[in-house]
Write a structure and sequence with these properties.
heterodimer; A: 240 residues; alpha/beta; Rossmann fold; six-stranded mixed sheet; four-stranded antiparallel sheet; 10 strands; B: 257 residues; 2 domains
Chain lengths: 240, 257
Amino acid sequence: MPDSIIELRNVSGKKLRNINLPIFREEKVVILGPSGSGKSTLLRYINLLEEPESGEVIFDGKPAGDYYYPDIRKRAVLLPQLPVVVDGTVVDNLKWTHSFGSEPDCGDDFKACLDVVGIAHLASSPASQLSGGEKQRLNLAMGFSLNPQVMLLDEPTSALDPASSRAVHSAINRMARKGVGFVIVTHSYNEALLLADKVGIIIDGQLKQLGLKDDVLNNPVNGVREFLESHKDNNGSGSS
Amino acid sequence: MVVEVLKGLIPVFASLSLVVIAGIIHRFLKLGIQTELIVNTLRAFGQLLAIGYLLEYIFNIENIFLFLLVILVMAVIGGNTAKSRAPLVPRVFIYSTLSILCGTYFTLGLMVAVGVINTDPQYIIPLGGMLVGTSMNGISLALERLYRELTSNRDRIELALSFGAKSTAASGGLARQSIKAGLIPTLNFMKVIGLVQLPGAMTGMILAGASPIEAVKIQIIVVYMIISGVSISVPIAVALARNKFFNKRHQLLLNLE
């Protein structure tokens, strides 16, 4: 079994209790759970925006505390639930992303990064005038341009219509094919079904089950089964 | 002695008639601020009279360290005022006081060193007071703005941090905005000085019998000192306060829900 690139080891804090989550290269993990179950906090712990009360976040076998945080955060960029854009054009936003000292990996015009998410034609459009789905894809391009090992996405389609959601899902799949791993937290069953290699289920702050998508969705343990049944019913459309 | 003092205050009491007129206008307009007017009239009278006698006493002692101590006391009061205006900024009192002192002592020190002013109390105390006052206002505005910018741009700051920005880079633009907000009133004051109103120092000198040209010379020096003082104190206060919103691990420390 390969070594994990990032690992949460016995992590507790806020609502989360004793989370063990290894993240492997080029893997898409979807964490499903009801609203308020601590999913967003989990991503903030991985990106080191917050410290867990106990337990460790491990990067390449070493505790995060051994590193200078600004150096390792780029390995696992966290994108917010509601996309954030700065003043200027789409390309200006990508330049802003690299104004903190990192070299872009997709050409000076960022075309390769915009192509991956399907908004290359919007390169010189004002970012503030993009639709919600386009802004979300711009944020994905900004994260992708930093050449991360993993991208951490917090409910990436919860505020989007079905067509925009599909565009975001396609963008995620294209980036995954280029070797980026994902940890996506969502309360949408459909999102797990469409995107995941692995599925984790968080209920009441505990990671109740973690495994390959088919194993978890077809053979849920007690407690998880009821949760999945209720979410299948609402078709994961983000109703909670 | 008491009778003499009261005699000397006759013009002041006469000018109270203006406050009575103001009170009548307030009442006529039903503004409901009569009590405030009375209290503030008494406060202005008491505070200024007290400081007048205190300055008279201090001026006679002629000890530069005592003057510096007076400015220190002013800075503490200024720091406390800044605290009341930006109460959610951590350590706002101590940082404001320190920054006010840096801007004020440096500006006064430089002017004394190059011989523009001397260490006589009639220079040090009023100029120090003006420097403290403008710095206090600039710092209050800047820190209040800083807190607002940090809270309303939290997602953007954390996105920058997530992209590998250090806390100084992630909040650099917001800190600059805050510093500007603190400096703009002083810059605006410089823009219209002499056109819209004659500033206090100059008015005071002319009333006291100085020639307008002499008064203007001093006023120009005062204005340059003020922009220097505020340009030193506001950035220091913003830098110190900004650092309290982040820890050494470049994490944003706003109260999260």
